[in-house]
Amino acid sequence: MAAPEHVPSPGVRRTTLDAGSTRLSALICVPADTAPRATVVALHGGGTGAAYFDGRAHPALSLLTLGARLGYAVVALDRPGYGSSAAALPEGQCLAEQVTTVTTALEDLAARHDVGAGLFLLAHSYGGSLALTAAAGPAGPGYLGVDVSGCGHRFAPGTGRDGGGDGRGGGRAAHWKKYWGPLRLYPDGTFSSGGLMQPMPPRESDDTPHWPDRFPHVAARVRTPVRLTFAEHEQWWCHDDDSLGEIAALFVNAPRVVVERHLRAGHNISLGATARAYHLKALAFLEECLAAAPVPAAAER
Asked: For residue 270, is pLDDT > 50?
């Protein structure tokens, strides 16, 4: 039996964006009675999809509806190899290719929609690698800021990606726990929500272990404000105090760097019971980025 599809929250609709050689599906939610002040572009992690940012287990979980109520347009993309592009890209794309594809899709977004003051990248896990790499590129300074959760600079011991074994100790349940943490962190109905999980494309999976080697070079080229969040029960990445200090120090050219922990949450923060708190903090960071952005000369006059 096929898994049920995601049913978007009220006010959220499906759309597609031209990404050059393919089209990317997305979920979009916009303010009801006003133009958006800015646009949040949400990039999901590996093995999920755009629905990650529209959690239906509880009305408070959806980033899309919350952002729209606060005056922002929110666009959650299905990254290359997910959603509508899965058939055209069954193997997925490596990180560099995804940056090109997503950047092209965002150009289409800006050409066809009012994006307000600009684009703000909010990303999770592998999507965080994509967001930071995009922000480190030539178009990076054009983003208002980058907010990333569940993406660090060094894999935690026991993940199978740290050189310390295959990460399968304890069996399937232990591997599952690395992604989710304790079940009590998630509202009832989280794991029966339709369209939540999708297969991780092979090329993306093969690319993932190389991220710690790339992180320092990417971080050094980011020139926009950055906020990184690690869940209290994060098990994929090192996030002890020394590690958080190391991460912040790598962003040598970013005008502002914030590194935080989020209490009572597992790796998939945006689906947990404290998702609303995380989303509000991320949107507060966007507010601060808007306040710090240079005022256009025409506006000053």
From this structure: yes
